[in-house]
Amino acid sequence: MLRSTALTWSWLNILTKKRYDALSQVYADMEEAMEHLDENMLKELGCREETMMIAMNRLEEFDSDAYEKELEKRGIKFLSIEDPDYPNSLKSLPDPPLFLYYKGSLDILNQPCIACVGTREMSSYGKRVVEEFVPSFVRSGMTVVSGLALGIDSQVAQSAINGGGKTVACLGHGLSTIFPKSNSRLAEEIVENGGLILSEFPLDQPTSKYTFPSRNRIIAGLSLGTVVIEAGEGSGALITADLALDYGREVFAVPGQIFDKNYIGCHQILTKGHAKLVTSPTDVLEEIGIVASEKTQISYEPADELEKVVISILSTMPQSVTDLVERSKLSAGDLNTKLTMLELAGAAKNVGGGMWVRQ
Question: Are both 37 and 120 inside the same structural domain?
Fold first, then answer.
């Protein structure tokens, strides 16, 4: 779809994957669908009266050129699900976000991602768990994903940065502001340190009781697994855990004292068999097939473009030469040569069985 069309649909904030598919069956493309946009179409899509009125008013006031300039001014980038750079981990979801706004590097999503979530009322024990788990994930080459809320989320992001790692913060509002405001500087640090701030909502979308569960599905969808660090009964972190289960991803929970209300949620999902009990980061890494490391990954400067390609697809999750050939589009001969050179340089390692990881 044309960028101006994508921006317009995003601004209207009514398009789910289900509605997108329905329109795609009726119209040749989203440009034609836009030409037929009226209250009758919105009604057929299942929109409520209030939603239809808001959408039509927003359509009337929208100026795509002015909106584009505002994005550029704020340093915010934009993608639709039809764009080639759209993350594959989200595209495979049954309910992927149709549009993404972001600051920072999408490239960090090419590395294995792990979600770490929990309560806003973080205890000293929860903080200690974060400080134990997150640096280990970072050393093992993982991108850490969370939500930038107060408490556990903020501590996860800060611990990833302090450990020299990359982190993704998924927001439940538009990127024109940061909520809570006290995390504005942390959001800047995430981007400054090679991380990513991500939202599916148009710039002016405020927080609401609906936007945070929507954000949680992105956290779960980006990640191989979700670790519930600390969660009381009814915690939003449990929504992320449920979504991860729905997506066929791994769910882990850290136990606490049986009398601690901050761990009622963790104990509930453990009792129901909805999560695996973990007491160390190694428990998580072994379960999802990541090669644990006691040292931070080395910074290696590729010798040529082919090495750059190979380095970009290697991760701490073991991959076969066949898989690497498919992902890199290199011949088996060229790939094996580059893997050998990278191994000699200490940037890659054969972990046995023809499986390779990045060092």
Answer: no
